[in-house]
Amino acid sequence: MLFLFPIVLITTLSLSLNNLMSSEVEIFGEKDKDSIVYYCVEEDSKYKDGFLMFVEGIRKEINIEFKEVDTLEQVKDQVDEKKAIAYVSLYENNFDIYTSKNGDSMKSKVFKSMLESLFNQYGAYGTIVELNPESFRNLVQNAYDEYVVSEDVNGKRTVTAAEYYTFAELALIILNVAAVIGELVYKEKQLNTINRIKMSKASERTMILSKVALGTIISILQIILVYIYTSLILKVNWGENTLKFILLFVVFGLFSSMLGAIVGIASKTDTATGGILNGATFVICALGGCYTTRAMITSVPVLNKLMYLSPIYWINTATSTMICGLESNLYLVAIMIPILLSVLLLILYSIFMKKRGGTIDV
């Protein structure tokens, strides 16, 4: 079951949710009525010429409608309800971008990042429009490529449903290893074998580490299976980052195994072990985008804040970014989070052992 489940899950989600992923490929879709930006410009704003050139350049690249209004109050409700992307105010020496108070959508995040990047560069150069108008047009195109697409040999690159769910569900599958290890550790305790191990001069910690090692090996086997299946059958190209992806999931498997072992040794009943681990798995996977796409999560208030707490969110974001060829430090963040969480679990285990009066071998 541990090895059949990944194949069935990834295949099912890749095929059934392909249309959902496809609809999110073009963030500012051609028929999207909500891709509207309202703006108000003061006549003496140093950003005026640059912004108008930005509007001209962006209209040629993506589907955004720009409408000039007098005040924010006229359109604030539309922006808050996400019927518009943003409201841009250009003052004499600065600018402000207002987005929904209920949390940024994917469109507003991308647009805001593009505009802030361009304005920061425009503000630095000051007279770029007068010196070289083509330079500013290039900034517009470069910003769009950076935040929305990446060029490869086939043109504009985006994440497919098969690619997204390969890595999202692999993370879910590996996290489920925690329940397996937790049950094994609890059964050791239930059968009183821990006491026998201590009598044979082997420590409780050695038993736990052996279960963590077992869980990590199971994770590695799952990674290899998913890699072979998705590469040959689903035609997912892991690309030049294959070894980085494998290392990332091995580290995540180590964290998952450690989580299961610690909960198993600390729980008083089998039900508690299963309940805690199953509950934690559901929450981490839901916030991380295993059951739906990240874009849907970011559109839900509260969840679009809590999702940053899930290590799977960072794994999905890092793998998607790397597949698209975008440069960022997200991979380091994604791999450091399970490492830090593993260290935290070891600290908690040490505290638990001291309070219980057990011994800890160093």
Biggest sheet statistics: 4 strands, mixed
- The end-to-end span amounts to 36 Å
Share in β-strands: 5-15%
Major beta sheet, strand line-up = 2-1-3-4
Instruction: Tally the beta strands.
Output: 6
Using the CA coordinates, give the radius of gyration.
Answer: 25 Å
Instruction: Outline the low-pLDDT stretches.
Output: 22-26, 127-131, 148-156
Tell me the overall shape: elongated
Tally of helical runs: 17
The SS-based structural class is alpha/beta
Amount of helix: 55-70%
Pattern of helices and strands: HHEHEHEEHHHEEHHHHHHHHHH
Q: What do the pLDDT scores average to? A: 78
Task: Spell out the key features of this protein.
alpha/beta, 6 strands, two-stranded antiparallel ribbon
What is shown here, in short?
The protein is an alpha/beta fold and 362 residues long. It has helices at residues 4-16, 18-23, 48-61, 76-80, 106-125, 128-131, 133-147, 161-175, 177-190, 193-199, 204-232, 242-266, 270-288, 294-298, 303-306, 311-323, 330-356, and strands spanning 36-41, 65-68, 86-90, 95-98, 150-152, 155-157.
